[in-house]
Structure formats: structure tokens, C-alpha cells
Design brief:
The structure holds two protein chains of two kinds. By secondary structure, chain A is an alpha/beta fold. Chain A has 19 helices and eleven strands. In chain A, strands 1, 2, 3, 4, 5 and 11 form a six-stranded mixed sheet that branches. Chain A has a five-stranded mixed sheet with strand order 8-7-9-6-10. The N and C termini of chain A lie far apart (59 Å). In chain B, 70% of the residues lie in helices and 2% in strands. Chain B is globular and about 75 Å long. Classes of the chains: A alpha/beta, B mainly alpha. At the A-B interface, α3, α4, α18 and α19 of A face α12 of B.
Chain lengths: 435, 296
């Protein structure tokens, strides 16, 4: 052995000697200011103790993160913790690849999660599968300055009010009164939930894999047809109609006056409006004849993947404990606009002197929205190949917005194609029981 | 044959030199291809929790799915428009650059440069060029509102895609065709010109017949390549929309498999697409390739 080899071996041994901490990986999908906030939490966790070290790896998007997790799991090289978004809940529940957090950590007071956030990620028997993380819900944003310019002093709260305001804005020469991207989560799922309408039979699939879509026959169909008419009238604009080409950017730049968007966009909107416009944020609008129900929790939650050694599981638990801490949830909320969803955190915020601070604006209204009266149809969506269904819905409704088919035909097609997906999912997981 | 093999003193050396490349091809082509065919016969759970053998049921379902045929139809239309233009446009440029006209020397160089740009980057640039508000069409849209919007109108989106593809195909095809043209002995033109053939006549009766091997090569490569290489452009320009109008088969496979976690459906379509590409190339060789005279 020559000197260099000796030196290298010595260095390697020294390296292994000092690495007592258990290293685990956590994969997430967010980018932008949310990613910055996630990284800050990871650093804070690693700095707070020396026993565990979490290595947070950004994958660029929820889908990419999931693709890689699937490949990694098959190669037995998967991370301990993975963040995944709402629409993939059923895929993970039936995958056999994740350990329900409530089984893993029975001592945690999971009841402190507000019902609206729990329901989406728990089994029909009430066992929580994943720890809610970056939780959001749908809110209604307005550019108050622009509304006032058009002579609208009161922020509308109903669809009827929005359309009246939109007509005034249009009359005042405003090119883009209300903007949406026509996304499934925003215009179908959250609309159905808060109006108490089912998306599919079997309570949106909670009661069995043999559910069928009903979106073409509920009041949601009427609303979606209205959106098409309102767009023709110039009251509603799609993302592609705007100069910005992206509806959030169009709203943030002041091009559009009103939008429905996730609470997670609040921080960016507030920053863009600073010194130029006044921002209001409220619960998403209702049709006057309907009673308000809860909106779904959106965003993502963290799953613990199976097949790891005990020290790694302990590290994962410690990190999840850390993320649940009130001060962590609060700083994450302040940095992003995502909503804290445990009652203890909400209490801390309510008692603090910053209770009415704009940085917690979405927390208050978001939780209020998710805490509205629930029905068996407003717990969440538990339907197979749901990510594909969202693509189908977008494809068919875009054709309706472009005038190639009526909205009713679009929704009939969506139901038909969606049901085919459900049947195939049922067959793929034949013999498996919904937990 | 003997003179060629005598280049290597050891008969195993050629095999050894080929091995790394063969290993890569096996790992990243043959294994996935086999996997796709295998999965197409099963209903496969994404996390590998179990899979059920279903025989040809996946094929039955895909082949009776209107969406699959719509995506296939769009793929064929794209092939006929974009791939043909991606050969014809470089052909015109090559013929022009081959002539002794002003700027033809720098053009022979400059037209090759775009080869260095990745498909995804081209997509980003073209999305900007064809933006309805700030792009080339902006002034036209200001005069006739709603005339051009690839975000709403499927035909506009398709045109954008075709334009981007043709542009990205120029360098390679241009080089091949220009090389073909340059290898034609000038005496041929001179003889044709002395016999009274004008420039157009010389193109159709001398140049085109003599570069048939190059034209055939570019057509085969274009038609088979474009089916899969268009992915980067779709992903960056249109994302398959609006209303699925630019969801070609290759993009549908990606969306089904990687966004929807439908491994079996995506595998089945991959298998079908692969057979289609092989058949296409076979047809081209059978019907056109045999008639080409490679001797001069």
C-alpha cells in the first residue's frame, strides 16, 4: 500500500466514525418560495439536534416525485419520507408501500387536526394515513383597488355578486374581470364540495372501488356551462386569454381583478400587490340558493414508506414531530400562505398579538372554509386513476370553452371516460379492500 | 470481406470494442422494450403490489378507445405535414445554398447552427414567438382580435408545433442534402445547360434524381424520428392542449404512464407505437427504397 491509499483509507474510517447520525431522505415536489420554506425547515431540524439528519430532496413537481418514488420503490432504493398531493391519496393507500402514520405513531394526538384536513387522508374508518403538511384550500382573491375604480365598494361573496361586479368592471373598460385556469381542483372539486354536491357515487369512492362519476348531472354542470357563457360575454377569462398567459400572474400583475386560487398563492400575491393595489381574500363564492359546506383540503401530505430500518423510522418520526410543532407550522404559514391545520396552532395564532396580521390572513379564512358543515360527500375524493381523470376533465372542458362542443357534452364524455378509468383501476386492484 | 477483417489481429477485439455500446443499447433499449411488451399483457400496480395477467385485454381496450385513435390520427397528420415540410424546406435551402449566389457560403455554415439547440429550448423560444400578445402574431391579433391564440384554438397550437418542428429539423437535413448536391459533378450541369436546360429543368432532371439516396435517408429518419422526438416540443409549447389537440401518441403515453400511473395502458400503447414505427420504416424500404439507384 502506498501513502495515498493509506491516507484515503484513514480518511474513510474517520468519515464513518463521525457519521453517527442517522441519515434519511425526504422527497418533496414544490418549487419557488414554498421550496425555500421547506428547506428552511429541514435546516432548522438538522440544527436543532444531532441524532438524526434529514436530507431534503426537491424533485421539481409532485408528479415527478411520485414517478421517481415508484421507480425507487421497485428498486428498493426509496426514501423514508415522501410528500405527495391530494389526488394520489388512493394510489398510495392501496400501494402497500406506505405505513399509516397513525399506526406508526399511535401516541400522537391526531385529533388536533381539523376534520376538514383529516378526512381527505384518513380511511373510511378514521385512520390517518399521512401527516398533512402544506395544506391549502380554495379562496377568493380580489384586487380591491380595481373593484373600487369600477364603483364596486363591497367585495362580492356570491357568484351572482361576482357576475354583477364583473359586468360593472367590463362597463368600466376592464378587459379581465374574473380569471381562472379551468383547473379540475378549482372549478369542479372545490365547487362541488362547498355546494355539497357529490363528484361520484359511493360518497366519492369512500365506500368502495365500484363508484361512478356523477359530475354531468349535478349543479356543477350548470355552473360550468355558466362559465362558458360568461367567458363569451367577456366577464370570465381563461389563462390563455390573458396577456400574462398564466392566470395567477395575470391577477398578481393587476391585469385581472378577481380569481379563485389556492391559499398557497397568498404570499406571492401580497408581495406583488405591495404599494400598488389592495388585496382581499375570502371564502370561495357560493350560488345564493345553496348552503355552504366545507372546502377540501388541498396541497400535500407526508407519507412514511415501508421497508426501512428502525433507526431510520425513528429519524422520520422525529422529523414529523418537528414539523407538527406550532412554531414550525406558523413560520411555514407566514412564509407561504399555506394553512395550519391543527387546533393547537390555531389557538396559538389567535392568542398572539399578530392574530390579525396579514401573514396569517389565509390561516383564518382557510380554516373557516374547511370547517364549514360537512357531509359524506365533502370528505374528499377517493377515486382511482384520479390524476388521469383530472387530465380528461381539462381536455374535454377546454374543448367546450373553445366552442367545439357544449359543456354538457364535455361533461358526459368526461363521465364516460372517467368511469372507464375507475373500472380499470378496480380490476388492477382486484381483491384489495379499501382501508 | 477478408481484407476488412484483417484490420483486427485478434478476432475478439472487435467484439470487445463493441461491447460498451451494445451494453448501453441492451440496458436502455432492449430491456425497456421487453418490459413494455411484458407489462402490456398485465394489469400492473404502480408500486408493484401485484399484477394480474390479462392476456390481450389491454390491446383490446386500447384499440377500441376513441382517444387512442384520435391521438394516432394526430400523429399521422403531424407526420405528413411536419415531417414532409422538414425535408422539403431544407431541400429548398440546400438547392439555393448550392448555387453560386450571394451569401450562399455563409448560409451553408449558419443554417447548421440550430443543430446545437435542444428540443426543449426550441419549444420555449417558439412558445414565445407565437405568443398571441407579445409574439410575431401580436400586431395581427391587435387588428383582428381572436385571430390567433394557440392557448385556446387547437389548430393554432398544432401549427405552432409544426413550425417549431420544421425549424428544428432544418440543420441535419440541410447538411445531408447539401452534401448530396455538392457531390454531383459540375460537368453534369454544364452538359445539361449546353443542351438548353434552364435552372428549374436542371433541378428536376439532374439534381433531384441524383440526390435520391440522400432524400430517401432524410425522409426515413424524419418520419420515424419525428414520432418520438416531437415530445420535447409538445411538453414545452402546448402540454398536449388545448383540449388534447396536440396530444400525439408519444405524449399520450407519457401522460398515461407517468402522470396517471397507468403502467399497463402506457406499455400497451408503447408496444403498438413501436410496431407502427417498424412497419412504417419497413414500408418505406420496401416501396421506395428498392427503387433507388445508389450507383452514379
Amino acid at each position: 500500500m502506498n501513502k495515498f491509499t493509506l491516507a484515503a483509507v484513514a480518511a474513510m474510517m474517520a468519515g464513518t466514525g463521525s457519521a453517527q447520525a442517522t441519515n434519511i431522505e425526504f422527497w418533496y415536489g414544490n418549487t419557488g418560495n414554498v421550496e425555500v420554506a421547506i428547506k428552511a425547515q429541514c435546516d432548522a431540524f438538522n440544527a436543532s439536534q444531532s441524532e438524526h439528519k434529514v436530507n431534503c430532496v426537491g424533485q421539481g413537481s409532485y408528479e415527478v416525485s411520485m414517478q421517481k418514488a415508484i421507480a425507487a420503490y421497485r428498486a428498493k432504493n426509496h426514501p423514508v419520507l415522501i410528500q405527495f398531493f391530494d389526488a394520489g391519496t388512493l394510489d398510495l393507500m392501496l400501494s402497500g408501500a406506505v405505513e399509516p402514520v397513525q399506526d406508526l405513531m399511535p401516541e400522537v394526538k391526531w385529533d388536533s387536526y381539523i376534520a376538514g384536513a383529516r378526512a381527505y387522508y384518513e380511511t373510511s374508518k378514521g385512520k390517518l394515513f399521512a401527516q398533512p403538511y402544506n395544506s391549502s384550500t380554495l379562496l377568493f382573491y380580489t384586487n380591491k383597488t380595481e373593484l373600487e375604480k369600477a364603483g364596486i365598494s363591497e367585495t362580492p361573496t356570491s357568484w351572482e355578486g361576482i357576475i354583477e361586479a364583473a359586468r360593472k368592471l367590463k362597463a368600466a373598460g376592464h378587459a379581465c374581470p374574473f380569471v381562472t385556469d379551468g383547473d379540475t381542483w378549482r372549478i369542479l372539486e372545490q365547487f362541488s364540495a362547498r355546494h355539497g354536491l357529490p363528484i361520484a357515487t359511493k360518497h366519492n369512492g369512500y365506500d368502495g372501488l365500484d363508484a361512478e362519476y356523477v359530475i354531468n348531472s349535478t349543479f356543477a354542470a350548470k355552473h360550468l356551462a355558466n362559465l362558458v357563457e360568461w367567458r363569451k360575454e367577456g366577464l370570465v377569462r381563461l389563462a390563455a386569454d390573458t396577456k400574462a398567459g398564466n392566470y395567477t400572474a395575470a391577477f398578481n400583475a393587476g391585469e385581472c381583478a378577481m380569481m379563485e386560487q389556492s391559499s398557497g398563492s397568498y404570499a406571492a400575491a401580497a408581495k406583488a400587490f405591495e404599494g400598488k393595489y389592495e388585496l382581499t381574500v375570502a371564502m370561495a363564492p357560493m350560488y345564493k340558493d345553496y348552503t355552504r359546506h366545507n372546502t377540501f383540503v388541498g396541497g400535500a401530505s407526508i407519507y412514511v414508506m415501508k421497508g426501512h430500518k428502525q433507526p431510520e423510522i425513528e429519524a422520520a418520526k422525529a422529523f414529523l414531530d418537528f414539523l407538527r410543532k406550532p412554531e414550525q407550522q406558523m413560520s411555514f404559514t407566514a412564509a407561504t400562505g399555506y394553512v395550519p391545520v391543527t387546533t393547537d396552532v390555531l389557538d396559538v395564532i389567535a392568542k398572539s398579538d399578530e392574530a390579525n396580521s396579514p401573514k396569517y390572513a389565509t390561516a383564518k379564512v382557510g380554516v373557516e372554509s374547511m370547517n364549514q358543515p360537512a357531509t359524506a360527500d365533502t370528505r374528499g375524493v377517493r377515486l382511482g386513476f384520479y390524476v388521469q381523470f383530472r387530465e380528461v376533465f381539462m381536455e374535454e372542458t377546454q374543448k367546450a370553452f373553445a366552442g367545439q362542443q357544449t359543456m354538457q357534452v364535455a361533461l358526459d364524455n368526461t363521465k364516460k371516460r372517467g368511469d372507464q378509468l375507475l373500472r380499470r383501476f378496480e380490476q388492477t386492484y382486484k381483491g384489495k379492500q379499501l382501508p | 470481406m477478408s481484407s476488412e477483417s484483417s484490420l483486427f489481429s485478434n478476432r475478439w477485439l472487435p467484439a470487445l470494442l463493441l461491447a460498451p455500446l451494445m451494453l448501453l443499447i441492451v440496458l436502455f433499449f432492449y430491456v425497456p422494450v421487453f418490459q413494455a411488451f411484458y407489462w402490456s399483457l398485465f394489469l400492473e400496480q404502480p408500486f408493484g403490489g401485484g399484477s394480474e395477467f390479462v392476456g390481450l385485454q389491454n390491446f383490446q381496450r386500447v384499440l377500441s378507445d376513441a382517444e387512442f385513435w384520435a391521438a394516432t390520427g394526430r400523429t399521422v397528420i403531424f407526420m405528413l405535414t411536419a415531417s414532409s415540410l422538414a425535408v422539403v424546406v431544407p431541400l429548398m435551402l440546400a438547392i439555393a445554398a448550392d448555387r453560386k449566389i450571394g451569401m450562399s457560403y455563409p448560409a451553408r455554415n449558419i443554417l447548421v447552427w440550430p443543430k446545437g439547440i435542444a428540443g426543449a429550448s426550441i419549444g420555449v423560444v417558439f412558445a414565445f414567438i407565437f405568443n398571441p400578445f407579445v409574439g410575431l402574431m401580436g400586431p395581427l391579433n391587435a387588428l383582428f382580435p381572436g385571430l390567433w391564440n394557440p392557448g385556446i384554438d387547437g389548430t393554432d397550437a398544432f401549427i405552432t408545433l409544426v413550425a417549431a418542428h420544421v425549424w428544428s429539423g432544418i440543420p441535419f437535413n440541410f447538411v445531408i442534402l447539401l452534401a448530396g448536391l455538392r457531390s454531383i459533378p459540375p460537368t453534369m450541369y454544364q452538359a445539361a445547360a449546353m443542351d438548353g436546360a434552364g435552372p428549374w429543368r436542371r433541378i428536376f432532371d439532374v439534381q433531384l434524381p441524383l440526390i435520391m439516396p440522400q432524400l430517401f435517408l432524410t425522409f426515413v429518419l424524419e418520419f420515424t424520428e419525428s414520432i418520438t422526438s416531437v415530445f420535447a416540443l409538445i411538453d414545452t409549447i402546448t402540454g398536449g392542449g388545448p383540449g388534447g389537440s396536440t396530444t400525439l401518441l408519444v405524449y399520450k403515453i407519457y401522460v398515461d404512464g407517468f402522470r396517471g400511473f397507468d403502467l399497463s395502458g402506457a406499455s400497451t400503447q408503447t408496444a403498438i407505437l413501436m410496431v407502427f414505427v417498424l412497419l412504417l420504416a419497413a414500408c418505406q424500404f420496401y416501396f421506395i427504397g428498392r427503387r433507388i439507384n445508389y450507383e452514379r
